[in-house]
Amino acid sequence: MVPLRVLELYNGIGGMHHALRESCIPAQVVAAIDVNTVANEVYKYNFPHTPLLAKTIEGITLEEFDKLSFNMILMSPPCQPFTRIGLQGDMTDRRTNSFLHILDILPRLQKLPKYILLENVKGFEISSTRDLLIETIENCGFQYQEFLLSPTALGIPNSRLRYFLITRLQSEPLPFHAPGQIETIYKSLTSLPEEEQITKLSMLKLRCFTPKEIANLLGFPPEFGFPKKITTKQCYCLLGNSLNVHVVAKLIKILYE
């Protein structure tokens, strides 16, 4: 079977790429694109053989996109214009420009990709940018499904609610069935009297997670690592901007079926 040619936009530290590997579908990342130099160092450390373009997406022409000859796009555009704690500038935020460029380029490609997967924060679903995205993919003839999903819905102990969109060039519906919520230690603790809650919590000897532990919670594989020159603070920031690998892997499988 001929592998899918995957274009990874806003690659960050490679969460989408790791999810693609975990999904086990026949695929190859033909190019990754991101302007974040620190994130790119981590990406190159983990995927040294993947072509990485360290440039702005809006600086890539239609002809350059066509030359990549991809049939799947994985992307996680900047979330700052849509976060609840931010200014929610939406389309007026300059950080949305690269994504608007993608939406302008998409209908004009010589060959449309067969699959697209997009991840963003809760809040994107009520944005004007989302409306333009849906209008664009509908005009291109894509079948799509969008939803808000937390890893906890898949039985993963990581509460991280995110917007996802999966879309493909065919008419069949995209079924998605999530299992029930997992039980948490917090639920058990809150059933205790207040004094006992404090006692139980003190016994846990709580501390901050290390970057490696956070990567594990996000589903990154054991071999994932950071270059030595990346500081601990940078590790935390990069992981905070990443995604849950297991969730995306599940969605890629659904999209490909």
From TrEMBL:
Record: active site: 79
Highest taxon, organism lineage: Eukaryota
UniProt KW keywords: Methyltransferase, S-adenosyl-L-methionine, Transferase
Single biological process term from Gene Ontology: methylation
PROSITE patterns xref list: SAM_MT_C5
UniProt-listed InterPro entries: C5-MTase, C5_MeTfrase, SAM-dependent_MTases_sf
Gene Ontology MF: a single term: methyltransferase activity
GO cellular component: nucleus
PANTHER family cross-referenced by the UniProt entry: TRNA (CYTOSINE(38)-C(5))-METHYLTRANSFERASE
The family this protein is said to belong to: Belongs to the class I-like SAM-binding methyltransferase superfamily. C5-methyltransferase family.
Protein name in the entry: tRNA (Cytosine(38)-C(5))-methyltransferase-like isoform X3
Gene encoding the protein: LOC105743661
